[in-house]
Design goal:
The complex is a heterodimer of chains A (290) and B (338). Chain A is α/β, with parallel strands linked by helices. Chain A is built from nine helices and six strands. In chain A, helix 5 packs across helix 7. Chain B is of the alpha+beta class and 338 residues long. Classes of the chains: A alpha/beta (290), B alpha+beta (338). Chains A and B meet through strand 2 and helix 6 of A and helix 9 and strand 13 of B.
Chain lengths: 290, 338
């Protein structure tokens, strides 16, 4: 079945109230997330290698409704975390998985180049099968080998950063974050960031200032990183959203690595295991958390 | 007399005037061109489309208004140090310069002149570049003052021609600046002016997507309560990227940042996309949901501002379209409003 037919059936049979998917944006390489309520609108649904957005967070915009949602493998990881955190009931969702052979690198797209996004070169979930209701697309996509799963280039970069003295490391991050304009696009697209009031907006007490300066910007990103630790699935939505190109994947990849090393946990890998910082097992070493 | 500056002379020009000017220009950061205060003139780019607009040069994202010390039973105000250097904005787009005209009007409105804005604005010389190849996101020709070769707001307008950048002098300030840098320029032949006219016409024709601002205003007049905004605002994640890269968005917030015995009062940009933007002291928020905040941005730009100032708060630069993390297109949102 095509994405249109699937959506058409679900809406006509009233299995869902709405469908969250992609539509064409201002040109071919800029698709947009969209929501449709009527079977007449299904023809505008699309999916192609430019559909980089992680749609999972949009379920929070229509809480309480029966939702049909299109997800790529990486988005499904985020959606599982959202379900585990009881932000949406699994029974209210019809999850339509899209097989995906990778999305295009956004920077390259802007320069009219054809290049696969870095994260997609190491994707182990091109054909998401677990916890989904439908699978659409080519199920014969060539899977990558176990060897290719790790992004060696990125891991090497992380190691390099770790070897730096704390002072030098701070210098590196200051350089990165001095360009941050605090538009909070990273937070707003993040499926793990859904606090009704973000600490950055809280005025009583005031945790951080609205001043834009390297240290103040770092404070924001540091706190946000800790808030999403163990829940961040390294989907890279934040990095893709950043208008000034801050390499946030260095942070999210590190977060994923630490969750694995410290707690043997892979965020979003299944729909039952609870995030490490939301549980406490008797006998667990407490110092791991600090 | 008309002049041309050769491309390899840009560094010489900037070095020549750097003693008397704070220079703001595009440089690459993580592969993206951004406007910033520069100290190394060899890194300066000229004819590029920056992520952010140069509005922050005269209306900084964070600006300290005053500093104070708290002593027993008294408050000491500290003088702020003002740089006595002039300001040079190098490499603005023609549309960015148009934005300065709009902001000038706004910050000098209803008998109030914003001294913090004009302290910097009066010292600034704006050198813009015209657009020979405007990108797909541009729609400056839909705005009255807008044009890829618009002279509005610029002191000098530079256009890429075969031998370098052809300089059109627009204001008195531009003339004075030209006199300072004459030694690095070379005279242009008389027929360049004709070529510029041709290039301008061609550039204008390259901008295919247009919006009708008058029609939009009348649609916005009646669509406030429309269900349209529910669907149109759905993809919006309510980040502030569009408003912060915009050359005309001017909303700001003032806050006191306190330490134990000292503090500062700062003005920082604010965005109508943020939940806190209209939150009152008592906790009430008239724009409680993302839809209302989304609707506000378009209405402010193409309805309220038109009613108050006689023109839209937009120059058609298309930065919001390019920076939107979900690909929202202001032209589409406005055209389809009903």
């Amino acid at each position: 079945m095509t994405i249109q037919e699937t959506a058409q059936n679900l809406l006509t049979e009233k299995k869902v109230d709405c469908i969250i998917g992609y539509e064409q944006g201002f040109d071919d390489v800029h698709p947009m997330p969209c929501i449709i309520f009527s079977p007449d609108s299904v023809k505008k649904l699309i999916f192609n290698s430019n559909c980089f957005h992680n749609l999972s967070k949009y379920v929070l915009k229509v809480r309480g409704k029966k939702i049909g949602i299109f997800v790529k493998g990486c988005d499904l990881f985020s959606l599982r975390e959202i379900i585990k955190e009881h932000q949406v009931n699994r029974e209210d969702l019809i999850i339509i998985a899209l097989t995906c052979d990778g999305i295009k690198d956004r920077q390259a797209v802007k320069q009219n180049e054809d290049k696969l996004a870095a994260k997609c070169k190491h994707c182990g979930v091109k054909i998401p099968k677990e916890d989904v209701d439908y699978i659409i697309g080519n199920e014969k996509i060539k899977q990558i080998t176990q060897e290719e799963l790790a992004d060696k280039e990125l891991l090497a970069k992380l190691e390099e950063l770790e070897k730096l003295t704390p002072g030098k490391r701070l210098e590196f991050w200051k350089k990165q974050f001095e360009k941050c304009i605090r538009c909070y696009a990273c937070r707003e697209v993040c499926p793990a960031c859904y606090c009704p009031e973000c600490f950055a907006e809280c005025t009583q007490p005031k945790w951080i200032n609205t001043n834009v300066s390297p240290m103040e910007n770092i404070m924001f990103h540091l706190i946000r990183t800790q808030h999403v630790f163990g829940r961040c699935t390294d989907c890279r939505a934040c990095e893709l959203a950043c208008p000034v190109g801050i390499p946030l994947s260095l942070i999210t990849a590190n977060s994923l690595k630490m969750a694995k090393e410290l707690f043997d946990y892979v965020p979003g890998a299944d729909i039952t295991t609870l995030p490490p910082l939301e549980t406490f097992k008797p006998g667990e070493e407490f110092d791991k958390m600090l | 007399m008309n002049y041309i500056i050769e491309k390899n002379q840009v560094k010489t020009l900037l070095d020549k005037i750097s003693a008397g000017y704070e220079i703001f220009a595009p440089v690459l950061h993580n592969g993206l061109p951004v406007f910033e205060h520069i100290t190394e003139t060899d890194k300066v780019l000229s004819d590029v489309y920056t992520v952010n607009s140069p509005k922050g040069v005269v209306f900084p994202q964070t600006e300290v208004l005053l500093k104070f010390n708290l002593a027993k039973n008294k408050v000491d105000l500290k003088e702020l140090e003002e740089s006595n250097k002039k300001i040079l904005i190098w490499g603005a787009r023609a549309c960015d310069a148009v934005a300065f005209e709009i902001l000038d009007k706004l910050f000098n409105w209803a008998n109030y002149k914003d001294e913090f804005y004009f302290n910097k604005r009066d010292k600034a010389t704006i050198i813009s570049f015209s657009c020979i190849n405007p990108p797909d996101s541009c729609f400056c020709t839909s705005i009255e003052k807008g044009h890829p070769f618009s002279k509005q707001g610029s002191d000098l307008l530079l256009t890429e021609v075969q031998d370098g950048y052809y300089i059109q002098q627009i204001t008195k300030k531009g003339e004075e600046f030209l006199n300072e840098i004459k030694s690095v320029l070379k005279p242009a032949s008389a027929d360049v002016e004709k070529e510029i006219e041709k290039l301008a016409k061609e550039a204008e024709n390259k901008i295919k997507r247009k919006i009708n601002t008058k029609e939009i205003k009348s649609k916005l007049d009646v669509s406030f309560e429309s269900k349209y905004w529910d669907e149109a605002s759905f993809p919006c994640v309510n980040c502030g990227a569009c408003t912060y890269v915009c050359p005309t968005c001017y909303c700001f917030d003032i806050a006191d940042n306190l330490a134990k015995t000292s503090g500062e009062r700062v003005k920082t940009w604010d965005s109508c996309m943020f939940a806190n933007f209209t939150k009152m002291g008592g906790g009430v928020n008239p724009r409680i949901d993302p839809k209302r905040r989304f609707r506000q941005r378009f209405n402010h730009k193409f309805k309220y501002f038109v009613e108050n100032m006689g023109e839209p708060l937009c120059t058609g630069c298309g930065r919001c379209i390019k920076s939107c993390p979900v690909g929202i297109d202001i032209r589409k949102v406005l055209t389809e409003a009903q």
